[in-house]
Amino acid sequence: MSAREWIGKDFYRELGVSSDASQDEIKKAYRKLARENHPDANPGNTEAETKFKAVSEAYGVLSDTAKRKEYDEARRLFGSGGPGGFGFPGGGGTGTGGFDINDLFGQSAAGGGGFGGLGDMLGNLFGRRGGGGATAARGQRGADVETDVRIDFAEAVKGATLPLRLSSPATCGTCGGNGARPGTRPRTCPTCAGSGLVSRSQGAFAFSEPCRDCRGRGTLIDDPCPECAGEGISTRTRTLTVRIPAGVDDNQRIRLAGQGEPGRGGASAGDLYVRVHVNPHPVFGRSGNDLTITMPVEFSELVLGTTLTVPTLESKVSVKVPAGTASGRVLRVRGKGIAKRDGTQGDLLVTLQVVIPGKLDGKAKAALESYAEAVAKHDPRPEITALLRDRGA
């Protein structure tokens, strides 16, 4: 996004957060506003659609650390936002307009000289990579878009390919993105000759400002497209195929480059971020790339030892429990966890948990009483017994 596109925009205000908000606060505010103003939830509501586009654009800048740094730097240099703000001519900033904005953006003002060096120094600050002139400055990268999908636990472990139905801003299908009614084309603005800027002198200084006739676009549309009203972008429902990689974590984002909101003025489209939500499994859990399972066992199985048949996501395995194993012990089964990106797999962690019966029949109760008598001399808690003895208990 160019500095010119930042003029008069307060992205923090759009999201309702402070300028020192954390990334989590920005993300939370965006998701709330996006849900409230999503076109699917507000069919036919142009005000909600406009707000949805605005918060998406704001999030596209503030969610990216590098872009946010550039944006904050621009705010510090030119003052806070607001209509026409950042101190440029015609704005509400503190500047007087006594400098050449063409020079600032690396362009040549009438008479040359001026702040050309400053323009070179700040070229990267505003996303310029050299060349391109006024047309490149007008280009605005499309905003990033975020959506959510929910998958089953097994799909998260093994990976999946899902169809994603998405309603979001996209290049207008009627006009192809140029904003003009089919059969017509935008014409070059006669006021600025297509540059998007008009220059004027004030005393010893020359400065430029966005052309008011074409609003800095460089072209005029006499017969706007009926679908997008001349914007070149309309809200469309499209279906994408999303590949969910094996081992994806709950709340992880997957980036689809170039599938976000289309750019303006020939700039590239934004990215689509798919946030994955994983449904919990009734039996298995997860710890990193290890699968976890709690295996109920009888007291006698731990005392005498046994071999348990334990399920995995795809089949089953046999696990040997040594005699005298304590309740709560974790047994590790190698290579039965989640596949990692390097081709290796995590493990299956089996936690043994004694099940205490709520009721016993006569035979079982008698056997348990006999066992209690047999081990009566064995103190299972010697440290506590000693402490109680010292206190006269």
TrEMBL record:
Binding site for Zn(2+) 1: 172, 175, 225, 228
Domain CR-type as annotated: residue spans: 159-237
Keyword vocabulary terms for this entry: Chaperone, Cytoplasm, DNA replication, Metal-binding, Repeat, Stress response, Zinc, Zinc-finger
Gene3D superfamilies hit by this protein: DnaJ domain, Heat shock protein DnaJ, cysteine-rich domain, Urease metallochaperone UreE, N-terminal domain
SMART domains from the UniProt entry: DnaJ
Any Pfam family matching the protein: DnaJ_C
Any single Gene Ontology cellular-component annotation: cytoplasm
Entry binding sites for Zn(2+) 2: 189, 192, 211, 214
Biological process according to GO: DNA replication; protein refolding; response to heat
Subcellular location: Cytoplasm
Main location: cytoplasm
Names of the cofactor(s): Zn(2+)
Mapped zinc finger ranges (CR-type): 159-237
Cofactor note: Binds 2 Zn(2+) ions per monomer.
Matching PROSITE patterns: DNAJ_2, ZF_CR
Biological role stated in the UniProt entry: Participates actively in the response to hyperosmotic and heat shock by preventing the aggregation of stress-denatured proteins and by disaggregating proteins, also in an autonomous, DnaK-independent fashion. Unfolded proteins bind initially to DnaJ; upon interaction with the DnaJ-bound protein, DnaK hydrolyzes its bound ATP, resulting in the formation of a stable complex. GrpE releases ADP from DnaK; ATP binding to DnaK triggers the release of the substrate protein, thus completing the reaction cycle.
Free-text comment about domains: The J domain is necessary and sufficient to stimulate DnaK ATPase activity. Zinc center 1 plays an important role in the autonomous, DnaK-independent chaperone activity of DnaJ. Zinc center 2 is essential for interaction with DnaK and for DnaJ activity.
UniProt-recorded name of the protein: Chaperone protein DnaJ
Organism: Prauserella flavalba
Gene: dnaJ
